[in-house]
């Protein structure tokens, strides 16, 4: 179970940590110093490098999470674990939507130098990543508070 937990946490660190960096550090700087053509090209490149890591993290998180959930009793597992599963699945669905819809539009807009369409796609990605970052941080809090409450009882 220790190796499974390690893989799970590594996946979370890559995904949630990457979103935190992109949303809280890179986004504000890119918006303040780059013109739309450079900013949109930067983001298309950043996502092109980051999203394969997210897919790997999703596979690690889902596989290790389901394994640990089974060890905890499946659907009889503690409520915090089931809540983590629900939040994680929501995050994965949001990411899949980002990848297959607005990210595709961003790449096409940058390739065609359609900066208005690229800006719209990037705006949608930004909003959805903000939601996913919030869900990721909430999930981490749920796990720690849930485990603490379970141990305290």
UniProtKB/TrEMBL annotation:
Name of the protein in question: CopD family protein
Any Pfam family: CopD
UniProt keywords, alphabetically: Membrane, Transmembrane, Transmembrane helix
Entry annotated with the keyword Transmembrane: yes
UniProt domain Copper resistance protein D: residue ranges: 45-145
Organism field: Thiobacillus sedimenti
Transmembrane segments annotated in the record for this chain: 6-26, 46-68, 80-104, 125-150
Keyword Transport: no
Entries under InterPro entries matching the protein: Cu-R_CopD_dom (IPR008457)
